[in-house]
Each structure stands twice: as structure tokens, then as C-alpha cells.
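Sat 14:20. Reprocessing the chain from the morning session after the first attempt stalled halfway. Input below, unchanged.
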Amino acid sequence: MDREITAYIRKDMGKKIMLLSGPRQSGKTTIAKALVPGYDYFNYDDAGHRLALKEKSWDRSKPLIIFDELHKMQEWKTWLKAVYDVEGIPPSYVVTGSANMEMFRKVGDSLAGRFFSFRLHPLDVREASTIMEPREALARILRTGGFPEPFLENDQVFYARWKRSHLDVILRQDLLDLVTVSDIKAIETLIEMLRGRVCSPVSYANLANDLQKDPQTIKSWLTLLENMYVIFAVRPWHRNIARSILKEPKYYFYDTGQVKGDDGHRLENAVACAFHKRLDFLEDVMGQNRTLNYIRTKDGKELDFCIADDTGPTHIIEVKSGDADRSPAFDKFPELLKTAKAVQLVGKDTRRKTYPDGLLVENAADYLARFDPLA
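Finished this time. C-alpha cells:
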């Protein structure tokens, strides 16, 4: 199937270096190889390819050169800058990696002004609805996650086997290629704990106590898992950004199938993935900055999600697996109801309805299939 981001990369690849990051097996290499009919491909994990990269001996008659996992090369930014500055474009360069390019956006002068960055997420309802009905797409995501191979295979036994090997490679190969981590077993335990705590704010101190580690170690491990596209953080919204960052985040998995718990937990994770993916897309493709947060007050009032721009929340969202009745959570935030679009997403089949104050109640799959935070 065609991925939405492909056309935008193809449009920009004749102008700058393309940095394409995303979770392992989300389809980055497939996209890169589909951009033009001819390309030369190098994967830094391959010894022979590493030698060719050291010698800079690729086929310059090809319109595209693909460097896969190049971020594992020492001083790769300086190396790539020299290639670009000396030889320019064409050929076009696409650099793909299974580590978050946010790690490399602070590149200083190395690649400044020479690249555009794109992030590829697993399939969500919006993207999958190009080949099937939105409700079937969401049902599959809840069963097998959104990674292309298990999603298209649509077999839970296949997914269970895929899921085990996928995480194992991330922890025992990708993670150790980038940093020195001595306690892989403890990180595996941390992931297992997070699987059961999706939808709830996470206390670093509590995790540290459970794992018999110090809180700073736990925070560094969580950052590593974010940078390796295992999890992502959703922080509480606050007008003071610094205070928001200090408050307890929620963590969601890029692979919804990893989530332990009832249907409601998996549905909320799938919704978080869809929102997160769309906001990254808007930033990468259009330069539009929006944040995904949740809202929680000191007295315990909470909304599952809010999407905010520089002026404040533009959307406030509650997710319910089966309850189509109006959630009382919205009534606790009357001021936000006046300024933000209020949406209650329901997992089960339900009729679309609106209330006098603007609240929309709709089936989650139907809403996610057309979701546009700028609309």
C-alpha cells in the first residue's frame, strides 16, 4: 500500500538531504526504495556496505542514494555534511534510521540548513482506511497493532511471534549499537511494567522503587525507549511549559498490541498513536506545531487528551470503549468547552451526535479516519 508521507519526501528529495526515522519495521526502507526507479542502497549494519561508505564508492549515476542506519556511524553528521557540501545534489540522499532523529536534530552546524526530517509511524486508521473500512482498520490495530507486516497478515499467532522478535532486536541490537547499557533485563522489566500502566500518569519514583534503581536512571531509560520508538510520552497541559514538563507523563506504545489491560486501554493507546502521528506529520510536512497532552487538575479532574497550539487547547478529547452517553468529565471544564472542540470517541458502534455546547460524540474509527487538527 502507498504510505501518505511518500509523496512529500519525493517532492523534497531534490532540494535537501532527507532524514527518515521511525520504529524498526515501520516501512522506512520500503518507502525509500519506492521513491524512484533507480537507487544505490547501503545498510550500515552490513560489513561490506560499511567499507563502501568509508570509501564513498557508490554509483553516482543513480538518481538516489539510500543510507540505512547511518546514525550508527561515528561522526556520521560530519561525514554526511562533507558529502553534501562537496558533491551536492543530484544524486538525492535519503538517510533512514530506527532511532528517533530528535536525537540528531540538535546537530549544530553539522547539517544545519541541509536536511528535512520526516518521521514514519506505524499504520493508523486514517492511513489504513485507504484500503479497508475504518472500523475494520481500528479492529485490526487493536488486535495486532499497526506495524505493516502483522497488520496486513492479520493473524494473532503470527503477531505474537513477530512481537517477541521485534522487541528483542530493539533491546539487544539497536539499543546497544547506540549506548552502553548493562542492565537489559531491568529495561525489559520496565517495559513490562509500562504495558500495564498505559493511560495512567507514571511516577519515576515509584518505578525506581519497584526496580530498585534511582529515579534518574529510570528517566534515562525512558528517554532511551522514546528515542528507540518503543514508547512516547504525553505530558499534562499547562500554560507554563516548564511546569508541564515536570509533571508526571503518561506513556503509550507505538505498538498498540503491547498494551496490557482491557479494550479501553488498547483503544486509548490507538487513539494516542493516531493523534501523535498526525501532529508529527503536520510538523514535518507543513511546519505546523501542535502538542498532544492530557489535562489533570490538582483536585483530580481529568480529560484523556488535549491538542494545543501556542494559544492553548484547540481540541479536548475523552475516549470510551463502550459508553456513548455524555461523559461528565467535560462539564468540569466549562471554559475549555467555549474555546476548544470537544470530542468523545466511542469504541463501539454508535450514532454520531452533537450537544448544544458543541460536544461531538462519535465512533472512534469514523472520527480518526478523517481527523485533521487544523480543520
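The chain has two domains: 6-119, 125-370.
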